[in-house]
Amino acid sequence: MTLRIITFGTLCVRRDRSTLAGAAAQPRRMALLALLARAGDRGVTREKLTALLWPDSDEERARRAITQSIYALRQELGADETIAGVKELRLNSELITSDVAEFTAAIRAGRPEDAAGIYAGPFLDGFHLTGNDEFDRWADAERSVLLQEHLEALEKLAAAAEARGDYTSATGWWRRLSAKDPLSARYAIGVMRSLMATGDKHGALEHARVHETLLEEQLDLPADRDVVALAARIRRELRAGARAEAELQAAQPAVAVDEPIEPTAPGLVDSDRDTAEPPNEMPPEFTLERTAYPPPPRRIEARVITDPVAPSVPPSS
Q: According to the model, what pLDDT value does residue 265 have?
C-alpha cells in the first residue's frame, strides 16, 4: 500500500491509484496534511497548526479540534504511525510520501532535472479554506517560494544545455520558463538566442512578436529594449543573408544546355534526315539480317508421253 500526498497543481491523497475520500478529503484536514507535507522532517508544532487552521477559535476548542482531526486522519490513512509526534507533528516518510518533500530534496541535492519533473503546477492550486485568511496567506507565500525554486531549476537546465552545445534542449527549457512567465524579457531573450543557435531565426522573430503583443495587451507597455534590439539584429542578419545569396546566384555563369543530336543513318546527309527511314529500334538480338539467298529451284513437272497403240491389222494374204 502506497500513500502519497499531491500538492502541485491540486491537493489530494492517493492510495496506489485511487484518491482518498471521506475524512481525509475534508478541506481543513487536507490543509493539515499540506502543512505537514511542506514541513517535511522539521515537523510543525500544534500551536502553529491551530493558528493557521483555527485562528478564530479559543485555545481549548482549537486544541480539541486538532486532536480530533489527527485521530480521524490516522484512521483514514490506515495506521497511527502515518502521523508521528506529540508536540511537533510530522509525516512518517516510510508510510506516506509527498511530491513537495521530494521536490525540496531534489533542489537541495542539486538535481534540477528531477525537481523540474516533480513540479506539476502551482502549490495547492485552486485550494482555499473559506473564511480562513491566515491559511490562504501561508499558501500564497509558499506557492511563490516553490515557483521561484522551480524557475531557478529550469534556468540552470537551460544554461547547462547551452554550455554543452545542446541548443535544441536549451530551447525547450527556455520555452518552459517563458510559459511560466511570458512577460519576462530575460526568458524571451533566452528563447530567441537558443532558436538563433539552432538556425531558426524566423522562429526567434516570431517569439519576439508574441512577447511584444502580450506586453501591450496585458500591461499596456512597449516591448523591452533588449528584446527589440535582438529582434532588429536578427532582421539585419536575415537581410544580409538574402543579399549574399542573391549576389552569389547573379555571379554564377549561365550554363548552356546542348540540344541532343539525333543519330544519322550511314550514308545520309543532314538534308536526307527528313526522308530517311527511321532506324530499326529493335534490340540487336531481335534484328533480322538481310542475307542474299539463292532463289529456290524451279519445280519441274515430269510428264510421260506414250504413243497411241495402233489397232492391230491382220497381214494381207
A: 52
Q: Is the pLDDT of residue 77 over 50?
A: yes
Distance set, CA 275 to CA 263, 264, 265, 268, 298 (Å): 14, 12, 11, 10, 39
Can you spell out the DSSP letters for 231-291?
HHHHHHHHHHHHHHHHHHHHHSPPPP-PPPPPP--TT--GGGTTTSPPPP-S-GGGPPP--
The pLDDT of residue 248: 86
Q: Which long-range contacts (CB under 8 A, 24 or more apart) does 99-105 make?
A: 99/4, 99/5, 99/6, 99/7, 99/8, 100/5, 100/7, 100/8, 100/37, 100/38, 100/146, 101/37, 101/40, 103/8, 103/146, 103/149, 103/150, 104/40
Residue bearing cell 538563433: 196
Query: Residue 133 to residues 55, 119, 124, 295: CA-CA distances in angstroms?
Result: 9, 25, 15, 125
* pLDDT tier for residue 59 given thresholds of 50, 70 and 90: confident
pLDDT value, residue 256: 56
pLDDT attached to residue 311? 45
